[in-house]
Amino acid sequence: MRSRDMERGRKHRGDTQWTAWLTPTIVVANVSIFIVVMYTNDCPKTTTGANGDCVAKLLRRFSFQPLRENPFLGPSSSTLEKLGALDWKKVVQGNEKWRLITAMWLHAGIIHLVMNMFDVIIFGIRLEQQFGFIRIGLIYLISGFGGSILSALFLQKSISVGASGALLGLMGAMLSELLTNWTIYKSKVLCHVLSQDTNINRKYNMVSLP
């Protein structure tokens, strides 16, 4: 029974392990875009910056907006809106459909960015190694686009940014793979537990003779 499960798993997933390069590229792209956003924001030149309210002033042009304005340590909402944040009015009434794509590459702040990219690395690399960059790339883009559509439908009074939709797509793919091959993973865990138990018994039940 166990051998059939393992064989089915090999047929389903294949023996090839892909090299994960797309996921790190996505992370680098998101970080690079955030740097560009902060450069464009230029907090010291804004009204709040003129009052000396910027956070991390040593970063100068890259310093963050005041925490009361953006608790995520990031740019102003006006900067995000200018660079492609999702705004329902501009998408529907202004016919700026491109915002459905650009919003998924923007982040509200460094905290938002780090949390999302950490999860993308955790789920993305594993999935890309198993299924290849084409499938994972399509899942990421389609899920991100779908998340933007849902945000436009339900968050009509505020702007939205982030890769949460794409991240949920990766998490869904991981859950689907886990449920599909549950018997295989269960067999592997059982084999590992039995082997450890055998090693422990050998270690503690061995009697030395004089």
TrEMBL record:
<dbReference type="GO" id="GO:0006508">
    <property type="term" value="P:proteolysis"/>
</dbReference>
<keyword id="KW-0720">Serine protease</keyword>
<dbReference type="GO" id="GO:0016020">
    <property type="term" value="C:membrane"/>
</dbReference>
<dbReference type="InterPro" id="IPR022764">
    <property type="entry name" value="Peptidase_S54_rhomboid_dom"/>
</dbReference>
<feature type="transmembrane region" description="Helical">
    <location>
        <begin position="161"/>
        <end position="180"/>
    </location>
</feature>
<dbReference type="GO" id="GO:0005794">
    <property type="term" value="C:Golgi apparatus"/>
</dbReference>
<dbReference type="Pfam" id="PF01694">
    <property type="entry name" value="Rhomboid"/>
</dbReference>
<comment type="function">
    <text>Serine protease involved in intramembrane proteolysis.</text>
</comment>
<feature type="domain" description="Peptidase S54 rhomboid">
    <location>
        <begin position="95"/>
        <end position="190"/>
    </location>
</feature>
<dbReference type="GO" id="GO:0004252">
    <property type="term" value="F:serine-type endopeptidase activity"/>
</dbReference>
<dbReference type="InterPro" id="IPR035952">
    <property type="entry name" value="Rhomboid-like_sf"/>
</dbReference>
<keyword id="KW-0472">Membrane</keyword>
<dbReference type="InterPro" id="IPR002610">
    <property type="entry name" value="Peptidase_S54_rhomboid-like"/>
</dbReference>
<keyword id="KW-1133">Transmembrane helix</keyword>
<protein>
    <recommendedName>
        <fullName>RHOMBOID-like protein</fullName>
        <ecNumber>3.4.21.105</ecNumber>
    </recommendedName>
</protein>
<keyword id="KW-0378">Hydrolase</keyword>
<feature type="transmembrane region" description="Helical">
    <location>
        <begin position="104"/>
        <end position="125"/>
    </location>
</feature>
<keyword id="KW-0812">Transmembrane</keyword>
<feature type="transmembrane region" description="Helical">
    <location>
        <begin position="21"/>
        <end position="39"/>
    </location>
</feature>
<keyword id="KW-0645">Protease</keyword>
<feature type="transmembrane region" description="Helical">
    <location>
        <begin position="137"/>
        <end position="155"/>
    </location>
</feature>
<comment type="similarity">
    <text>Belongs to the peptidase S54 family.</text>
</comment>
